[in-house]
């Protein structure tokens, strides 16, 4: 809105340019996070806002780093974006899901304090860690997603159930979902993306790169989709107003890049559910809004793999327990990064080196998936 106001009082086209506003969003996010995060970390340390117990006399890093990132992204987006159906729905989803995640983060901190005071047994910690039950949390995910999905379907004219198929030009074939099926699909994608991103946030910097690559892809698609000439040339659906997602994507990317400065191993702060759940939901809705929902499993392959490993582990355990009387595990541990921790235990000189190998290989897979998706979206099609 600041850029929009500057454009109106100065009539300088620069302030209305998509690339300029996206660049300002990225730089503002980076500067704000870099300046505010050290102060924020010290404040959380004074409050003992950690969910892990101190080991070998070393203080555990605080959680809820993602809450600051979300606030920065929301503020920056309000400054540089024009408010329309695309930007409003994305910012609402980001704020709503982040609030649910923040409740869980705060409750984990309180649960740890109760253990220190002897008011809660350590064995009960995992059961008491979440502020709300998993079933209620999922209910809120689907409720928020459904409300916003209905809003998008009603008030965004271009959003009528169309989905771009990878490898197929839009003038050859586009999948069309009927009204209520599309709303249900959008609701599921947002909720599942939030949950999957939360599962991925298990090792230092692990979740940051998949979010970054997702924002690079969806931001570029939004930019191209909002330009009639570019969309026609690259065979991408023309979606007027969709390019307002571009500055939001760059704001998230900038905030995550600055966050990596503090979260790179050894981490000074953890993202927590406030960040992972909020950004995960933002990924889901942005992919749907640019009609690239079917590209999400490709671009976000690490997030999908982490979520599927948890789901398959639970289903296989219940199935084998019902059929054989003894529950068996498909993976050594879930989510997937824990499986590799178990599998590679003792094969590296230290646990940090093993974790770094896991994280960097998953980062590379995310980057490979981004490159492949860009080729499929803009070249092959």
Keywords summarizing the entry:
381 residues, mainly alpha, two-stranded antiparallel ribbon, 15 helices, 69% helix, globular
Give your account of this protein's structure:
By secondary structure, the protein is mainly alpha-helical. Helix content is 69%, strand content 1%. It has 15 helices and two strands. Strands 1-2 form a two-stranded antiparallel ribbon.
Span between termini: 35 Å
Structural class: mainly alpha
N to C succession of SSEs: HHHHHHEEHHHHHHHHH
Tell me the strand percentage band: under 5%
Q: What would you call the shape?
A: globular
How many helices does DSSP assign? 15
Percent range for helical residues?
Answer: 55-70%
Task: Note the main sheet.
Answer: 2 strands, antiparallel
Please report the total strand number as a whole number: 2
Spatial strand arrangement across the major sheet: 1-2
The overall pLDDT, averaged over residues, is 89
Rounded radius of gyration (Å):
21 Å
Would you identify the regions where 5 or more consecutive residues have pLDDT less than 50?
A: none
Question: Can you describe this structure in just a few lines?
Answer:
This protein is mainly alpha-helical and 381 residues long.
